[in-house]
Amino acid sequence: MPQPLPPGRRRRSPVTRGGRATLTADSIAATMLELAGRRGFGSVTMHDLAAELGVTVRALYRHVQDREEVVDRAVELWLSHWPVPRLDPGDWRAGLRNYCRELRDTARRHPRALLVSLDERVGEARIPAQRLTAPELFLEFLVAIGLDLRDALFVHSDLLVRLYGFALFIDYRADAEDPEHRRHLVPQAWLDSHPGLDLPLLRRAQREALPDTDELFERLVDDVIHTVARLARESPDS
């Protein structure tokens, strides 16, 4: 017979039950993030979450108040993995390149989560501190290598636009194993549907595979580094 627990102690739920992880608010949020990373937050319902977790919708509401709470927790989890820059102004090119790669890896894991601000209204109470410390440290680094704050803000915004675009339009398609979009500028079927159009460069490009995604990304980072170098040289304090 199980021994009674001492006063004030609560019996903890098992980590698994029947071979399946015990349902918690955190596991619900993690599932939301996985689904939203592939499909977008706006397309994930509580019924979708319940089906993915193999439970009823009613079971979800024993652990979370509503869908809004699930989204807030999922965004908090996602942002908690966002890389914090540790950049050395003395070797800034190598450091910036590595930081860009870290940002790419993070965005690539949940690419459509990048659109959360368009799909959802996220509660500010669950925004982790590193969501603020990361851009602060990045701006601090750019100012330290000679950019004024206005140019540093431009570089920060420019990098995010490039990164988000790459994650959504290049990596997302490549990782979904869409070979037609990955290897060519336009699908062959589009060209075949307009045989009379004078498109010599597109047709020539169709015979030549585009650079792979890693090579494309490194060229993107080259452009970011060149921009930073130019702005640092042009700064009156450099």
Question: What does it look like?
Answer:
With 238 residues, the chain is mainly alpha-helical. It folds into 2 domains: 17-79, Arc Repressor Mutant, subunit A (Orthogonal Bundle); 81-234, Orthogonal Bundle (Tetracycline Repressor, domain 2), CATH 1.10.357. The chain has 12 helices and 2 strands. The chain has helices at residues 25-39, 46-53, 57-60, 67-80, 92-109, 116-119, 130-144, 149-175, 179-183, 188-192, 200-206, 213-234, and strands at residues 16-17, 20-21. Strands 1-2 form a two-stranded antiparallel ribbon. β1 (16-17) and β2 (20-21) form a beta hairpin. α1 packs across α4 and α5 (92-109) crosses α12. It is flat. Mean pLDDT is 86; it is low at 1-17.
CA radius of gyration is 23 Å
The biggest sheet amounts to:
2 strands, antiparallel
Contiguous low-pLDDT stretches (5 residues minimum) are 1-17
CATH structural fold name of the largest domain = Tetracycline Repressor, domain 2
Q: In percent, how much strand structure appears in the residues?
A: under 5%
Number of helices: 12
Say what oligomer this is: single chain
| Bulk shape | flat
Q: Mind sketching the topology for me?
A:
Elements: E1 16-17, E2 20-21, H1 25-39, H2 46-53, H3 57-60, H4 67-80, H5 92-109, H6 116-119, H7 130-144, H8 149-175, H9 179-183, H10 188-192, H11 200-206, H12 213-234
Antiparallel strand pairs: 1-2
Helix pairs in contact: 1-4, 5-8, 5-12, 7-8, 8-12
